[in-house]
# Entry
Amino acid sequence: MLRDLSVNRWRRAAAGLLLAAASCAQLPPTSSVAIPSIPAGAARLWFYRDYEPYETLARPYVRLNEQIVGISEPGGAFYRDVAPAHYSIRVDSAGRDFNQVADAELAAGQEAYAKVVSLRSWLDDDNCILWSGCDTFYVWLIRPEEARPAIGKSPFYGGD
Amino acid sequence: MKAPAVDYMRPRTLTEAVDLLAHASVEARVIAGGQSLLAMMNLRLASPGLLIDIARLPELLTVADDADAVTLGACVTHAAIEDGRVADPSHGLMPRIAATLGYRAIRTRGTIGGSLALSDPAAEWPAVLAALDAEVILYGSSGRRSLKCSEFTTGIFQTKLADNEIIERARVPKLSADARCGYVKLCRKSGEFADALAVVVADPRRGYWRVVCGAANGAPLVLGDTSRLVVEGPRDPDALRSAIGSDLDHASDRHFDDFHRNLHIVAAMRAVQQVLA
# Structure
């Protein structure tokens, strides 16, 4: 009997720890993470997205020249080190609109910042949700002085 | 907070109102709908010593419908335009826009003249009337004068209205039968001021095309390159995006951040698309 109680207590504690590790743990802000320098001959592309409580929580794929390179998390930031080249940057989007895709010409050692924007709740003049309310994502290149502070505050989702 | 104590006068004529304004010994402000001024007074952002109420002046409530234009008295409310209680020179553009201003309670009191006089950079009427090539008629101690709406607003809450002048009317040219308009307002929440706003008017019969950007960190911004492109009827979204971006970049004094620059591009492209569709 005593042994059963002890086992049950241990199981509950283990389950709690697992839950905390799996879903409740907060990722550190990017500013608190040691980010390695850009590898020689590579360029770095940062992706970030503001957390908007009234916006979609969808996690669309981020694509460089149509290849999936990551997932855009609400409020999250990550980077990818890539070969110097021209990149078409887009995020999978159910809604179609203008100005959804960004183009970046990256040289070795260069860093660029792509902001993922969701305009699902941006209203049109008829006060209707645009495009039948489906998630509509945009990727816009943002200059470093505007992007870096926002990325620094965003939870860091990794890089390579 | 409540507004500070203030004297209140309701003149019977426009001339009397201008006299009061010109000869007041304290800071005097004209009030019509009061939808911005009273809020600013409650927040102690404005503390006039005298309010001159012009809301019921008959000269400012009249609407004249002639062959070329409709002239709206400054105290015509947004709701009157929304409900079609006054003549519409714009084939539905102005009622459509009036319906998006704030909330109905605001629209029943707020006036077109008040919106112009305040010239909030994110407000609709300064941009829309500039796009429609409207004129604003001012009445002051030294008489009457008129200005293009595109020149009347000079910056953020800044206009060419002199201290002793009152907006009397807005004269809006009538669009031709085959004119087309586009309008897009981007804001997070119904009833809010715009984060980005675009108005397009294309009236080929009058040889008139204009694309105007509102909520543009200053006076309404006329997009010259984009307007010229609309004349040609562009079908290439990249060319259109490039022209809008170029127009925004030329307005370097507006200091658009990249986010708002892109937001304005989306708004303008959608509005142009409405005209070309």
Observations:
- The radius of gyration of chain A is 20 Å.
- The domain at 27-159 of chain A is CATH 2.60.40 (Immunoglobulin-like).
- Strands of chain A lie at 43-48, 61-64, 67-71, 77-82, 85-91, 102-106, 111-118, 137-141, 156-159.
- Chain A touches chain B at residues 54, 97-99, 115, 117, 119, 121-125, 127, 138, 140-143, 146 (CB under 8 Å).
